[in-house]
Amino acid sequence: MDILNTCFETTKNYHSIAFYSHLVPIFISLVLIFFTLGKSKSSYITKIFSVFVGLFCLWLIGDLVLWTSQNYNLVNFSWAPLDYINVLFYLFGAYFFVIIAIKKDLNIFYKSIILILSLPAFYITASGGSVVYFDQAVCESINNDFLTKYKLFIEFLSVTTILLVGIFNFKKETKENRKKILIVGLSIILFFSVFSITEYISSVTGVYEINLYSLFILPIFLVGIIYSIINLKVFDFKVFGTQLIVYLLFILIASQFIFVRTPVNIVLTGFTLILIIFFGNILINSVKREIKQKEEMEVISKNLIEANEKLKGLDKLKTEFLSLATHQIRSPLTAIKGYTSMLLEGSFGKVVPEQQEPLERVLQTSNSLAIMVEDFLSVSKIESGGMKYIIEPFDFKEMASDTYSDLKITAEKKGLVMNFSSDTEELVMVSGDREKLRQVVINLIDNSIKYTPEGSISLGLVYENNKVIFSIKDTGVGVSPETKEKLFHKFNRGEAGKMNTTGSGLGLYLAKEIIKAHHGRVWLESEGLGKGTTFLVELPTIPKE
After folding, report:
1. CA–CA separation, 242 vs 228, rounded Å?
2. How far is CA 17 from CA 216, 336, 438, 468, in A?
3. What confidence tier does 540 reach under pLDDT thresholds 50, 70, 90?
């Protein structure tokens, strides 16, 4: 009985603080284990975390018995395994951090190392050598000296491992993962360090009450873990994270009943608990609604992405079909143009006057259709990424002049006056694909011919500052300010499309893409409907030596 009384008298002054410093972390630890196992028990991170927190919870329970129990046998029984539990707690704390940092479970080799490191402490504890004898004078056991030093070695090894693994993986991770490593790593190191330092000081000074105060740092460690669970998605709990915070707040406030004594403080603490329950319930329901809406939006977003992928697939099939179809049309169309031209030239005999006009219309329509087919083929190549450019130096002025000569007859047959002028007699050398750029010039001139009922078309070339600007100015139907930008989009011909339905609506789009590939630009200027249009092409030239 003297021993019992001595133990009780020695520790009774610390009962309140011992209950608070132990029970709050025990409850918080149990809640964490409950949530992690209940919501993602199949995860290896969850399992290691639960063992890690569970071991410390077990250590807290054993240590609480030492501070509050009046039963000598229970005190002695609880004291014996604490150092071994402490060793396991440190090893699993390091294990937990490492698998978060490397994002995978350890292989059998490293697991074997953890097991081997725990064996000395297990052997000493299992053989009954962890406690040398019980000191009745101070109501404390004298621990095995080797086990105490070995425990400190494991503590140092665990903290060092966390630091090294954290630093190594921090450098090569994303911003979010760096934050996870930093928060979790610092939380564990903070608690381990404070716990080890205070334990060492208490063993040296003999003032073991210091250990009670070191436990107050545990909430900071748990806050770091909880933060990781909720915000950094270590376990991805969603709404359960909010519930966890509310429950933890309830535990922390309820624990104040250990200290409060006056009726006023009891009422205030009780009222605070009621408010936490009320507003906590509102918060949880609000988060549930928000998460439900977020999940619905994620489903919609996923469906839109899938629909977009299907549309891309259909668009690709459309492009491939268009390319194949226009390719097949080009061969017979070339034959129609060739034979019609030969008929008009009298290669198969003289053409009677009644046949002249129909054959000319066939040739004109064939030419327009040939341009349209080329446009379709070029657009399909651009969209599929198959457009090839043969880049070589050539005289842009010569190419423009030849194209003017080829299309001048077509303009004159429509009753239009067409002329070409250049501000230089020199060669205007550019580096590019001659045929592709010629196609652009043909499209722009053909566009002016189509949409100019009467009047003239003037082609001009200006060469200055290592740039050439080629312009096509007509007296045609003009363009409204609203239509200017749209005209360079696919299948958009603006208001003028109503007077000419033979175009594809691809010429200007194709011109923009080809010129852009040559590091130039194309644009139009017009004062409005009925006031004509000027198309301009700007290209870089080869600098003169």
Report:
1. 13
2. 10, 103, 91, 88
3. very high
CA distance 233 to 251: 24
Q: Which two tokens stand for residue 344?
A: 């008009």
- Confidence class of residue 3 from pLDDT cuts 50, 70 and 90? very low
CA 100 to chain centre: 20
Question: What CATH number is given for 391-540 in this structure?
Answer: 3.30.565.10
Read off the pLDDT of residues 357-380 as tens digits, 9 standing for 90 and up. Answer: 787 777 777 777 777 777 667 766
Q: Is the pLDDT of residue 40 over 50?
A: yes
Phi, psi at residue 142, to the nearest 5°?
Answer: -100, 120
Q: Are 233 and 37 in contact (CB under 8 A)?
A: no
Q: What b/e string do you get for 396-435 counting C-beta neighbours within 10 Å, with b at 16 or more?
A: bbebbeebbeebbebbeeeebebebebeeeeebbbebbbe
Q: Are 230 and 237 in contact (CB under 8 A)?
A: yes
Q: Does domain 304-382 have CATH number 1.10.287?
A: yes
Q: What is the pTM assigned to this prediction?
A: 0.48
Instruction: Evaluate if residue 235 carries a pLDDT over 60.
Output: no
List 394's β-bridge partners, or say none.
Answer: 430
Name the CATH code of domain 2-236 (choices 1.25.40.10, 3.40.980.10, 1.20.1070.10, 1.20.120.160): 1.20.1070.10
Q: Which amino acid is at 501?
A: T
Q: What is the DSSP letter of 455?
A: S
Contact 244, 230 (CB under 8 A): yes
Instruction: Give Dmax (Cα) for the chain.
Output: 140
Evaluate the CA torsion angle 196, 201, 206, 211 in order and state its sign. Answer: negative
Nearest 5°: CA angle at 486, between 485 and 488?
80
Angle made by CA atoms 93, 97, 103, in degrees to the nearest 5 = 145
Dihedral, CA atoms, 320, 323, 325, 329, nearest 10 degrees? -170
Closest CA to 80 of 39, 25, 141: 141
Say how far apart CA 517 and CA 541 lie, in whole Å: 14
CA dihedral in degrees (284, 287, 292, 296; nearest 10)? 180
